[in-house]
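2024-03-11 09:14:02 INFO worker-7 job=invfold-0412 stage=load source=structure_tokens
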């Protein structure tokens, strides 16, 4: 039996590629292949326990090429690993659309910074005010980084709405996002998602129930495209400047108020949310 096992090992070894041969077939460097092994993206089929040499199966050629191409797209290594588990045109397209959206936000941030660093006139912002009565809100707060917002906000909103439905309460078709500090790609910050509702609901786990208001709000009507391009930063600046110039104080933090029907159905340049700063004289 031992002799047969050795023969099988010899035959299997003859079907494998050395790391140098895989490098030639994929146009990747040996250094890159070693790195992909170390980080768990592309493991060799066999590592010789005595020499430490790495060996690969012929069917690993295409995945190795794919890894190299995805890294040229700057896809992060964890995303590459997940993609290799289920590669598809649809998953690639979905990832790329998210990258394009992130790039547009970065482009918008550059425009904002360019204007902030210049002596040019700021955009004209139409600031309105309204009275807000006391209202009950169910809220969920998390500490998140900026790239996590697009997942955290809708997931938190749906969790709150599901709980409200289970308690027989009626949400008011609004979603409030309160930024208690500004999250960045490097540092987490507390972000609170609130859903105003009518009915009787008790707190549950992470979901808090409280009363907001009454107060007066200054607000700027905004569109989906202004969110995507970060033009809403000008609205925040204008509102904060307006409150300071008037000598008002803020009883709570600024927030974004999303009108869910409008957000789902409005075109990119139609009113879908407000940038809001509550204030008291």
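2024-03-11 09:14:09 INFO worker-7 stage=emit residues=281
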């Amino acid at each position: 039996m031992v002799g047969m096992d050795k023969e099988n090992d010899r035959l299997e070894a003859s079907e494998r590629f050395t790391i140098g041969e895989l490098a030639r077939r994929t146009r990747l460097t040996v250094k890159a292949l070693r790195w992909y092994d170390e980080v768990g993206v592309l493991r060799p089929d066999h590592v010789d326990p005595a020499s430490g040499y790495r060996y690969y199966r012929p069917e690993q050629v295409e995945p190795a090429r794919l890894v190299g191409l995805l890294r040229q797209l700057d896809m992060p290594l964890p995303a590459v690993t997940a993609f290799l588990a289920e590669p598809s045109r649809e998953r690639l397209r979905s990832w790329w659309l998210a990258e394009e959206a992130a790039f547009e936000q970065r482009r918008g941030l550059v425009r904002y910074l360019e204007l902030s660093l210049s002596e040019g006139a700021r955009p004209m912002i139409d600031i309105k005010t309204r009275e807000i009565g006391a209202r009950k809100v169910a809220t969920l707060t998390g500490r998140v980084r900026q790239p996590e917002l697009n997942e955290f906000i809708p997931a938190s909103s749906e969790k709150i709405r599901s709980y409200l439905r289970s308690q027989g309460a009626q949400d008011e078709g609004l979603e409030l996002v309160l930024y208690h500090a500004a999250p960045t790609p490097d540092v987490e910050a507390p972000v609170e998602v609130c859903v105003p509702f009518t009915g009787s609901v008790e707190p549950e786990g992470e979901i808090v129930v409280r009363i907001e208001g009454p107060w007066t709000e200054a607000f700027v009507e905004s569109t989906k495209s202004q969110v995507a391009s970060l033009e809403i930063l000008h609205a925040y600046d204008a509102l904060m400047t307006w409150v300071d110039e008037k000598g008002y104080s803020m009883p709570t933090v600024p927030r974004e108020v999303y009108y869910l029907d409008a957000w789902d159905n409005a075109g990119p340049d139609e009113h879908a949310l407000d940038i809001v700063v509550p204030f008291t004289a």
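2024-03-11 09:14:09 INFO worker-7 stage=report msg="The first helix runs from residue 2 to 15."
2024-03-11 09:14:10 INFO worker-7 job finished
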